Amino acid sequence: MLFRGYCLRAVTEDDASVPGLGSQKAKRDCWNRFLQEADGNKVWTAAAYTTPRIDKTGQALVREDGSITEGHWEREQAILQAHFPQGPPGSYMPAEDEGQAFRRIDAQLVGSLLKTAANTSAPGDDRISAEIIKVFWQWDEQRITQLVWACIRLGFHPGIWKTAKGVVIPKPGKRDYTQVQAYRVISLLHVISKLLERTTAHLIADHLERKQGLHQGQFGCQKRRSSVNAVAILMNRTQQAWKKKRVAGALFMDVKSAFNNVNKTVLGKRMEELGVEADLIRWTMSFITDRRVRLVLYGEVGDPNAVDTGVPQGSPAAPTLFVTYLSGIFDTVEQAAPGSSGLSFADDIGWWAEGRNDKKVAAKLSQAAAAAIEWAGKNGVAFDRGKTEAAMFWRKKMGRVVAAKVKFGDSEVPFNKEATRWLGVWLDSQLTLKEHHATRLKSGRNAMMRLRQLTGKMGHSPTNCRWVMVGGVQSVAMFGAELWRNGGNVRGTTGRAEELQQLDNQQARVTTGAFWTTNLGVLSMESGLRPASNQLENRQRRFGLWLLSLPQGDEARKVVIGSSTAIGRRIKTALNRTWTSTEQTVLPEDVEPLNAELIQDDREEAKSEAEKERPGLFMFTDGSRLEDGAAGYVVAWRNGLAWKGIKTHLGYNQEAFDTECAALARALESASRRNTVPERITIFTDAQAAIRRMATDEPDPGQKYALEARRHIAAL
């Protein structure tokens, strides 16, 4: 067992008399003490220690041409050549336009993005962690804000931040670790540089979302665009084709060395085509130009090497820049191959088509593959032929083998006979997801057997054990269950809830340390683990509410709205009582600023501020939700020596978060209707999440209250 940062206790004379026994006992006692005293993040640190580590120190590497490397220097050069290929010369500079994106940068935006930085993330060469930068922010937030503001306004990324440590780590699940492509290089960047990159990525992503610059089929690296959403759309489209007595198929392609092959010139032109501000384009070109990397291989740090292509994997800006770079392929292919449509998640691209038979579908997918390969050749992109797969979807199980094949370049791709894995979901030909459930259940069992080392008499407390089981086992076993869960005796789905319940029972025994003969009802109550059927229902209901909360026009939302397919009916059934009152969100094309100052203090500071005498009107809000589901809020303010207030009942099926947001909007509405406008209005609330919600107009829960607040502030 691996230990980090914990001292071993002294060894007794009796222990020391047996060779090796003393140190073993000391290690065991130290580990047991660590488990028993663990709390907070240390619980997950212990869980991480149970994961088998892939140690390939000194592993011989085979180059792409088949030759074998000898010595450390040759291994380093082989990884550099494979992961940082020589790019075409040149760069791209936008038209001489100053750009206006920098004007949206203020302390509130930079501070909110800094809070998202994890304190445990590895720092760059300067060894300054995110926690230290947050302390600096408390001392002088204006200086850091001005630094970010100036860099984006000038379109300049400081050269001292362009050298990164490239840590070489093996990819999990690979069969052959002698291959160079079985490893990835993660760049460790300066934390202050990552704050600048995170700010730029936010501005670019916000522009692309509001202007709908990216393709509707692009998922990943964006807000509200998860992999499960993409799979739900594919299933919904396929089931719609079945209703028309047609078949459907998909071709799944993987971009080879995705982040490392981004072409600077192509990226710059694409950003300009999408209307990205000139200052953001200039900063992007500066960010990815003249970069250097120092490989960390087997613990040895190498010399700096020039990198003239790609975006550093590990940068907060890299995912946004990559999806922008790849966005041009979808419209091009769909125009060149009528009847095909694209679905992707980051570098995993899928082409979907329907037809009267398998040959028609194969012909459409072949046409889409040809157009994709042609676009890739012109834009410096390459697809991995070994990871390209094709799947055919039938309403009824076919007794024959699909003879049609998809033409992919100079080769042909047959349709898989077994289930095809895409975005973590195993898709069988009839979309019952039977293989997916079996695979996830097996993974959940393996995770439980691994994590049970942390339980027992000398292990975690029962509360910590429950956290580990919920986060490390149930999340694994039930991933994607919202796509197949029906709640009835549907062919292909019966018995799955019972299998998950058996796993839940095993988790309860591990959590409580109870005997195998203990009553299951008592086990469930004592462990705090909910029954599998309840978890499945809640998971599907939350997924349905999530789809309904998406902006109007989002294709994933159509899975529920106006859909009569099997997956649509399943989600509607789970929603039953709540979906009619779900908030509808919109995506404003332009940013609606909040002309107010938001201050978040801790409990004592806020209490002290509330007790002070201040000019103008000051109000207090609070919202709540009772156990029976009834929700409401109150707004109170002082009128002379007396208090006045508003009480409002919001009905049922509202969350406490909704009531807090509604209270803030109502307080502003009440202030705007006064005959005399106060010189200053101060509103106190104990809901930090509601305060953060008011700061943005993005289409998330509570958006309607944030937009109402902006209208009332404008009236004031």
Summarize the SSE layout with pairings:
Elements: H1 13-16, H2 21-37, H3 41-49, H4 71-83, H5 107-115, H6 130-139, H7 141-154, E1 163-170, E2 183-188, H8 191-210, E3 218-219, H9 227-243, E4 247-254, H10 264-273, H11 278-287, E5 291-297, E6 300-301, E7 305-307, H12 318-326, H13 328-336, E8 340-345, E9 348-355, H14 358-378, E10 389-393, E11 405-408, E12 411-414, E13 420-422, E14 425-427, H15 434-451, H16 462-477, H17 496-512, H18 520-527, H19 532-548, H20 566-575, H21 603-610, E15 617-625, E16 631-639, E17 642-651, H22 656-672, E18 681-684, H23 688-694, H24 703-715
Parallel strand pairs: 1-5, 3-8, 15-18
Antiparallel strand pairs: 1-2, 4-9, 4-10, 5-6, 5-7, 8-9, 11-12, 13-14, 15-16, 16-17
Helix pairs in contact: 6-7, 7-11, 10-11, 10-12, 13-14, 15-16, 15-17, 16-17, 17-18, 19-20, 22-23, 22-24
Approximately how much beta-strand content do the residues carry?
5-15%
Q: What is the averaged pLDDT score?
A: 85
In terms of quaternary structure, the protein is single chain
- Tally of helical runs: 24
The low-confidence runs, each spanning 5 or more residues with pLDDT under 50, are 1-13
Protein described:
This protein starts with 12 loop residues before the first helix and ends with a helix. Helices cover 42% and strands 14% of the residues. Helix 22 (656-672) runs parallel beside helix 24 (703-715). The chain is globular. The model is unreliable at 1-13 (pLDDT under 50). It has 716 residues and is of the alpha+beta class. It is built from 24 helices and 18 strands. Strands 1, 2, 5, 6 and 7 form a five-stranded mixed beta sheet that branches.
